Amino acid sequence: MKRKRMYAGKVAAVVLIGFFIFGLRTYNELVDMEHFVHVAHGRLLVEMQRKQVVLSRCRNAVAMYAAMEEKIQDRLITLHKLTKTHGPRAQIVKNEGLEIIKLVRKLDLLIEKYPDLKSKGPYALLMETIQETGFKVTAERLNYNNWTYNYNVTCRLFPHRFLAMLFGFRERPFLQGPLNYASLNHAL
C-alpha cells in the first residue's frame, strides 16, 4: 500500500511537472505571438506614416515642377513677343532671358532632387508613387492580418484556450477595408 502511494505520488509529481512545463511553453508561445502581432501593427503604422510623407513630398515636387514649367513657358512667350519688335526693348529682352535662365536652373535643381520627374513626367511619377506606397501599406496590412489569424487560432485551440483565458490573452480584430490612420492608431 505504501508503495502504491509512493508510486502514485511520483506519478502525480511527474504529471504536475509536465503540466507546468507545458503551461510555461504555451504561455511563452502566446506571448511571442502577441508580440509579433504588435510588431506587425507597428510596421503597418510606420508604412502608413511613410506613405503620407512620401505622397506629400511627391505632390509638392509635382506642383513645383508644373509651376516652373508654366513660368518658363510664359517667359518664353513674352520673350518671343518682344523679339519681334527690335530696338528699344533690347534691355527688356535681356532681362527676360536672364529670368528664363534662373527658372531653368531652379527646374534643374528640382530634377536633381527628384530625377524621376524628368524621365517619367510629373504626373506619371505621382501615379507610380501613389501605387507603390499603396502596395506597401497593403502588404503590411496582410502581414498584420496573417499574424492576427495565427494568434487568434492559437488562442482558440485546445489546450491553449484555457491558458489564454487564464492569463488574459484576447483575440485581436482583423483590419479590413480602407485604412484610416487615426482609427488604426488606437486599434491595439
Describe this structure in words.
The protein is an all-alpha fold. It has one domain (2-185). Helix content is 85%, strand content 0%. It contains six helices and no strands. Helix 1 (2-84) packs antiparallel against helix 2, helix 1 (2-84) packs antiparallel against helix 4 and helix 1 (2-84) packs across helix 5 (160-167). The two termini are 57 Å apart. The model has no long low-confidence stretch (mean pLDDT 80).
Characteristics:
188 residues; single chain; mainly alpha
Enumerate the spans where pLDDT stays under 50 for 5 or more consecutive residues. Answer: none
Largest sheet: none
**Class by SSE composition:** mainly alpha
- How large a portion of the residues is in β-strands, by DSSP E? under 5%
Instruction: Write down the overall geometry.
Output: rod-shaped
Overall number of domains = 1
Order of helices and strands: HHHHHH
Number of strands: 0
Spatial gap, N to C terminus: 57 Å
Helix content: over 70%
Radius of gyration: 33 Å
Mean pLDDT: 80
How many DSSP helices? 6
